[in-house]
Specification:
Length: 390
């Protein structure tokens, strides 16, 4: 049983002479190599995505994603390819398989509702809005007769098609790999009532972005930065409108708001100066301000958390970077993306900028990144002027 792993590790060791730096005698210690299935998979994915011929201090996105972003002929048929569209596709297939199953007496009531709604949506002769009617009718239909003060979402009752009555129809899924069972739970009423909450999708937790059997630098660089990103949204120009309880109530002082706006202006200017070479167009830093600030805050928090760990991570087979360098590589490969010029043009005016700039824009503001990769001052990834909000 050891031979396949040994063969894979040998291949990775040869690849590492190209993709990574020359290993020292200490690096050759087999006990320092993570040999779990998750580690072998992570190493394979990172090596396949990267372009080691590019200097990381010149263009870290190309360095980490260069072999992935250059599309083949078969890839050109796809509108977009990236980690998150792939995760969503896999999750939707699992969810679809669950929802296509017949309703059983042992199903939780929210799973029964989900299956019912799914089947209604696929009935050509049914109109969804007529099949799901809240008590008191739809507000948009009632017009001027709508009484907002008398509305309590938590007490709203829905009748779906010919089913029984349902309350609190917001819920989440947790499914198992064999599709044999699913846990369905309603969202807490306090979250529903406030209408403002951030969620990291379940699909992330069953992907290569997180695995207990792979080094922490992979988990922190990917999932850790995503968690930090969502938390930072609570402190951006939209999140600041809500208090600690999630209610619409801006509690920031005028000084705090002014300082935030001044620091954010640096981010806006930075991203507005980025040009998408394929189109000859610049990004709109104002539109993507919220996401850019969240990216910066998320990666900064994740790096600090990882740096505080007292354990030493093993290296991946075939890769000879330091753990902190691997943290940045993990973050970057999460954003590898290939797309069409048409969609790229749409992304320029989207609140989420093209993924290339979520890497280069974010990491070029991090002194820790420049230190870990020894980037000279004034290089593309270590500019003299840096932006920082949180």
């Amino acid at each position: 049983m050891e031979k396949p792993v040994a063969l894979i590790l040998l291949v990775f060791s040869i690849s590492g002479l190209v993709f990574g730096t020359q290993p020292s005698s200490a690096d050759n210690n087999a006990s320092d190599i993570c040999e779990t299935h998750a580690c072998v998979h992570a190493a394979s994915r990172i090596i396949k995505m990267g372009n080691p011929s590019v200097e990381p201090c010149d263009d870290f996105y190309e360095f980490a994603c260069g072999s992935f972003v250059n599309p083949t002929e078969s890839d050109r048929k796809s509108i977009v390819m990236d980690t998150f569209t792939e995760l969503t596709s896999k999750f939707n297939k699992k969810l679809e398989k669950i929802l296509e199953q017949n309703i059983t007496i042992n199903d939780f009531k929210y799973l029964k509702l989900a299956k019912t709604l799914y089947k209604i949506c696929f009935k050509k002769n049914d109109i969804f809005a007529n099949s799901m009617e809240p008590s008191g009718g739809w507000p948009v239909v009632k017009g001027s007769k709508w009484n907002e003060s008398a509305f309590d979402f938590n007490k709203t009752i829905f009748r779906v098609d010919n089913t029984t009555r349902w309350e609190n129809y917001f819920f989440k899924f947790d499914s198992y790999d064999d599709y044999s069972s699913v846990t369905v739970e309603p969202y807490p009423s306090e979250l529903i009532a406030d209408w403002y909450f951030e969620v990291i999708s379940y699909e992330v937790f069953e992907s290569e972005l997180f695995d207990l059997e792979q080094p922490n630098y992979i988990n922190y660089g990917a999932l850790g930065s995503l968690a930090g990103h969502e938390i930072t949204h609570g402190f951006d120009f939209s999140g600041k409108q809500y208090d600690a309880e999630g209610h619409l109530n801006d509690t920031w002082t005028a000084t705090s708001t002014e300082n935030f706006n001044n620091k954010s202006e640096c981010i806006i200017e930075q991203y507005s100066n980025y040009t998408v070479k394929e189109l000859g167009l610049n990004l709109n830093g104002s539109i993507s301000q919220g996401e850019n600030v969240a990216d910066h805050g998320g990666i900064r928090a994740a790096y600090r958390a990882y740096s505080d760990l007292s354990i030493t991570d093993k290296r991946l087979p075939g890769l000879f970077y330091t753990p902190k360098q691997m943290f940045w590589i993990s973050y970057a490969t999460m954003w590898c993306q290939k797309t069409t010029p048409e969609l790229l043009k749409m992304l320029i005016f989207d609140s989420h900028p093209p993924y290339k700039f979520r890497v280069t824009g974010t990491l070029s503001n991090m002194p820790e990144f420049a230190k870990d990769f020894k980037c000279p001052s004034g290089s593309n990834m270590n500019p003299v002027k840096k932006c920082s909000v949180w």
